[in-house]
């Protein structure tokens, strides 16, 4: 008789995370429980506990995967114009948020695992944020005394607000695509021509 091959540990964890994503996409963050994921994966709850310890560990792993997916979504071709790379990244961000609203809410909604800035998942989140800051740097648009991190925070706030308004369905313009493109044009113009962070040392 041929010996039964054991599935590699990382493959088991990945399969359970895929099952957890299915539950998350279908039932939202509140629906993600150890029992629900085990049922979706057709395994015992102990199998989930063995891989992720508890529900919190499972949610952290889900958030980490969602952030990695977001990082892929905002990736842009290296040979594109810097402003177009920025546009492509912001478009990818919006597309991810609209395509995966539950995953987006998990990482950026109330109770996000990212609120613990010392956690491993926060490291992944900062890497995504650093990508945005780097794109802004590459545009070469800020004055020498400006802070690209501050600029990235403002840009993030703008695009997060835009996609949240669109997700909720409370936008006041008829064409969300056009409005988002106009937002990007406004952001690029501001970054290139008008943005400057005052140096507090020069203030009275």
UniProtKB/TrEMBL annotation:
Keywords: DNA-binding, Transcription, Transcription regulation. Gene3D superfamilies: Homeodomain-like, Tetracycline Repressor, domain 2. Residues 10-70 form the HTH tetR-type domain. It comes from the Bacteria. Residues 33-52 bind DNA. PROSITE patterns: HTH_TETR_2. InterPro entries: Homeodomain-like_sf, HTH-type_TetR-like_transc_reg, HTH_TetR, MT1864/Rv1816-like_C, Tet_transcr_reg_TetR-rel_C_sf. GO terms for molecular function: DNA-binding transcription factor activity; transcription cis-regulatory region binding. PANTHER family: HTH-TYPE TRANSCRIPTIONAL REGULATOR RUTR, TETR-FAMILY REGULATORY PROTEIN. This is HTH tetR-type domain-containing protein. It comes from Mycobacterium adipatum.
